[in-house]
Write a structure and sequence with these properties.
Blueprint: E1 19-27, H1 31-49, E2 52-57, H2 62-68, H3 74-82, E3 85-90, H4 107-116, E4 120-126, E5 146-152, E6 164-168, E7 171-175, H5 182-196, E8 202-207, H6 213-226, E9 233-238, H7 239-248, E10 255-258, H8 260-273, E11 281-289, E12 294-300, H9 317-329, H10 334-349, E13 352-353, H11 362-366, E14 369-370, H12 373-385
């Protein structure tokens, strides 16, 4: 392990402080900046609550291609498996965007999800009251927005075979295969119902059952699982209807579960509700439990933003809030997670904004304090220490 950062304090019980092992994947573009910012926040919360971290930095993504010729090595996957959790910045960028390349940064995500058994991506969609003005939706439509989107990660069009371009007598053609098994559907739908029981007890399953055989299987399996959760309301929606409702009345959703491609699109659409892609966290989890909680990979939903990389402009809040999810889900530290989230709220209450969060109205913007990546992290860390 490198970059050891152990807390200076002992726990209130007098026992030696726990040290959590975290695999760090800074990645590409703004990834290293938001990861460094988040590490500083985690160190601050560790000092407050009397625990520490041992960081293992891995070179993965485009950086991995440059260093090793591959986006993710088997030993990188093993290092992530050995850690208590994985924290990722972002991967990819125009440098590696050749569509004919056999090695691409995004292959690292597939390798990690498959190698670590991470089948469910969780994306909470909430609106911070301080940022309502930054959302394109009318303020009255944002009241009560608290949605959790579950996207299946390990199957569907992204993994089906064959997936290739072909030469035919009529010219080029391409084929992708949409494939789902009953077991792949059942495990994520069951998780959706379990999570709904801890929330508002409503599951919306999204598909295209009027066209796709896989979607009809999703409906059948979801109905079967629902029989074990009679206390949870279930509705089925076609993906186009769900997309429209997300834009018109997002507060109508509680837990939304869907397949890989639809989940990818809908969760990015829902991200706009919050006013900036830079605000939203995510967790990718499987079934494996560690000594502290459920093993998972945590990352902001934004990309690598190469246009602002190295300029101290990136919004670190999505990564910081992903770390709060990590504290809660994988490390069993709900107390620390709540402290991080409260510090983010306090910083926003006090008017601190990265460039993407500044109001478009000049008068409102003048009332805010514009800060960069490092300063936003410092502000949050200071408020954790209070």
């Amino acid at each position: 392990m490198t970059d050891a950062g152990l807390a200076d304090e002992v726990s209130t019980t007098g026992a030696a402080p726990v040290t959590y092992r975290i695999a760090l994947i800074p990645g590409d573009g703004v990834g290293p900046e938001v990861i460094d910012a988040t590490v500083s926040v985690l160190e601050a919360v560790g000092r407050r609550f009397g625990f520490g971290f041992a960081w293992d930095r891995l070179v993965v993504g485009g950086a991995g291609i440059d260093a090793y010729g591959v986006a993710c090595r088997p030993q990188d996957v093993e290092a992530c498996r050995d850690a208590d959790a994985v924290l990722l910045g972002a991967v990819g960028g125009p440098k590696w965007d050749n569509p004919d390349a056999s090695v691409r940064p995004e292959q690292a995500l597939f390798a990690l999800r498959g190698g670590l058994g991470l089948f469910a991506n969780l994306r909470p969609i909430t609106v911070h009251r301080q940022l309502i003005g930054a959302s394109p939706l009318r303020p009255e439509l944002l009241e009560g927005v608290d949605c959790l989107i579950l996207r299946e990660l390990t199957s569907g069009l992204y993994f089906g075979k064959p997936s290739e371009q072909r030469e035919t007598p009529d010219g080029r053609a391409a084929i992708d295969t949409l494939w789902y098994t009953e077991g792949e559907i059942r495990r994520i739908v069951m998780l959706a119902f379990e999570l709904a029981r801890t929330r508002r007890r409503k599951v919306t399953q999204v598909d295209k059952a009027n066209v796709l055989a896989t979607s009809r299987l999703w409906r059948k399996v979801t109905e079967e699982v629902h029989a074990d959760f009679p206390d949870v309301e279930l509705e089925h929606r076609l993906v186009d209807s769900a997309a429209m409702t997300l834009a018109k009345w997002p507060a109508g959703f509680d837990v939304l579960v869907t397949e890989n491609l639809f989940g990818d699109i809908l969760s990015d659409e829902a991200a706009v509700i919050a006013g900036s892609l830079g605000m939203l966290p995510s967790a990718s989890i499987g079934t494996r439990e560690t000594a502290h909680g459920r093993h998972g990979l945590y990352e902001p939903i934004h990309g690598s933003a190469p246009d602002i990389a190295g300029r101290d402009m990136a919004n670190p809040l999505g990564t910081i809030l992903s770390a709060a999810m990590m504290l809660r889900w994988s490390l069993g530290r709900a107390d620390a997670a709540e402290a991080v989230e409260a510090a983010v709220d306090r910083a926003l209450d006090e008017g601190y904004r990265t460039a993407d969060l500044l109001p478009s109205d000049a008068t409102e913007a003048a009332a805010c304090t514009r800060v960069g990546t490092k300063e936003m992290a410092r502000v949050i860390g200071d408020r954790i220490a209070i």
